[in-house]
Amino acid sequence: MLTDGRFAEAEKAYRALPADSTLRRGADQGPALVAALGIYKARFHSGDWAGAEAVLREFIAGYDPTSAPFRSGLLSARRELAHVRLHRGEYEEAVGELREIAAECRQRWGEVSLHCIIAHSVLGEALSVAGYSDEAVTVQRQVVGRIGGVPGISSKQSDFARVLLASRLIKAGRVDEAEQELVGVVPTLEATATEAALTLRSVLAELTTKQGRHQDAARQWAELLPAYAERHVGVA
């Protein structure tokens, strides 16, 4: 439901996940974590950033440190909270928090782990938004280089990591490198009706703009607007 823009339905489903509350403790902390992060994502992607932040802060305050997934769950919640702060314009604070989270993930689970891949990908986004363009490229290149070794990662997920690398390269002014990254992934992702496909199309439009092909870029952006409106606003 999150992937096709049905955010209210997604929040309702996540709320029903734990038997009584998203703040249940002990053995129920795992389902509680999934529910809280799911509600956060539903609110965040619907544009309710204040509501998303409130869910995370409430969950962090009530998180049971004796539960089995304590560290990974707390780090996930902290990472998402930093993401909210990033979108609110608190760049340095968000980057600082994400650097700490990435460092702990490396120490606990190693560089070739899903925890570390997610932490570094979000850190790369934060660095790019905050103006650390070259470092953002370096971090995302590390993600691309390691993601294939993580158990359970699909080829499409690896391709999407390259799309994000292309986006970081464009923001760093390295347009030719960005184009090379996109050449191999366009056929795989472009035809899928997913958020990844929308991201790919927006990166392609951004690339076209940077190449000075303004008429083509205008067409690409115009074609994207209805898709974004349908997914994120719920209108056709």
TrEMBL record:
Transmembrane segments: none annotated. InterPro entries: TPR-4 (IPR011717), TPR-like_helical_dom_sf (IPR011990). It comes from Amycolatopsis alkalitolerans. It comes from the Bacteria. This is Tetratricopeptide repeat protein. GO terms for molecular function: identical protein binding.
